[in-house]
Specification:
The protein is globular. It is 54% helix and 0% strand. It has one domain.
C-alpha cells in the first residue's frame, strides 16, 4: 500500500470523508470502457498514465495535467488523490521534487484499479436528461 495508509479500506475511508474526492463516479462511457477491458490492461493504462503525467520530479503543468474525463483512469486519479504531486503528498505521503519509483507507480496503479473495481460494483449513475433531449431505447 502507500506510505500513508496501510490498506485500501483505510485509504478509501479517508477519501470518502472528502467532499471533493467522494463525488467522483465513472460515467456511462467510462464504465463500458472499463468493463470491456481486462484488469491487467486497465492496470497497464494506469501505470503508463501515472508515469507520463505525474511520474517526473517536476511534471509539466503540475496541478492541471489530469483531465476530469475521457478515461476511467483520469476519474480514478481525482477520486484517489493521484492527480498531481500536491495531492500525492497530501493523500499518499509521497514527496514532491523527485521521480516516482516503479514500486510507487505500481502501488498507485493498484489504488486506481481498486477504485475502478469498487465503483463498477455500485449501481450506474442515472443519466441526466436535459430539456429537449431524448433518450435512446437501447442505452
Amino acid at each position: 500500500m502507500t506510505l500513508k495508509y496501510q490498506t485500501f479500506d483505510a485509504l478509501f475511508e479517508a477519501l470518502a470523508r472528502s467532499e471533493f474526492r467522494s463525488k467522483f463516479r465513472l460515467t456511462g462511457d467510462d464504465r463500458v470502457f472499463a468493463e470491456l477491458r481486462s484488469p491487467e490492461l486497465l492496470n497497464q493504462h494506469a501505470h503508463e498514465i501515472l508515469k507520463n503525467r505525474i511520474g517526473a520530479s517536476h511534471p509539466k503543468n503540475d496541478g492541471k495535467q489530469t483531465p476530469y474525463k475521457g478515461h476511467p483512469v483520469f476519474t480514478a486519479q481525482h477520486a484517489t488523490g493521484c492527480c498531481c504531486r500536491s495531492c500525492l503528498f497530501k493523500w499518499h505521503g509521497i514527496e514532491k521534487n523527485r521521480e516516482l519509483s516503479d514500486r510507487e507507480l505500481n502501488e498507485l496503479s493498484a489504488v486506481i484499479c481498486e477504485w475502478i473495481r469498487r465503483d463498477l460494483e455500485k449501481p450506474a449513475k442515472k443519466k441526466r436528461v436535459r430539456k429537449g433531449e431524448t433518450l435512446s431505447l437501447f442505452d
